[in-house]
Amino acid sequence: MDVPYDLNSYIRVLKLASTPSTDEFLQVSKIAGAGILLIGFIGFLMFAIMSLLPGVGA
After folding, report:
1. Stated pTM of the model
2. Ranges assigned E (strand) in the chain
C-alpha cells in the first residue's frame, strides 16, 4: 500500500469534485425518492397479493 500515492489520488479527486447546485440536488433527491417509493410500492403489492391468495404466504 503506497500511502503517498493514495493520498495524492484522494486529493486529486477532491479537487475535481464540486458541490451540486440547488437545482441539481433537488433533481437527484426527487429521482432517488421516486425510486424508493416505487420499490416500496412494488413490495407492498407483492405482500398484498401474497396475503390475498389462499394457501400462499402467512
Report:
1. 0.63
2. none
Nine-digit cell at 49?
397479493
End-to-end CA distance of the chain: 52
State the Cα–Cα distance between residues 55 and 38, nearest whole angstrom: 27
CA 48 to chain centre: 25
Check if the beta carbon of residue 58 is closer than 8 Å to that of residue 51.
Answer: yes
Domain boundaries, the chain: 19-58
Write the DSSP string, 15-54: HH--PPPHHHHHHHHHHHHHHHHHHHHHHHHHHHHHHHST
* Per-residue pLDDT tens digits for 43-58: 999 999 998 888 765 5
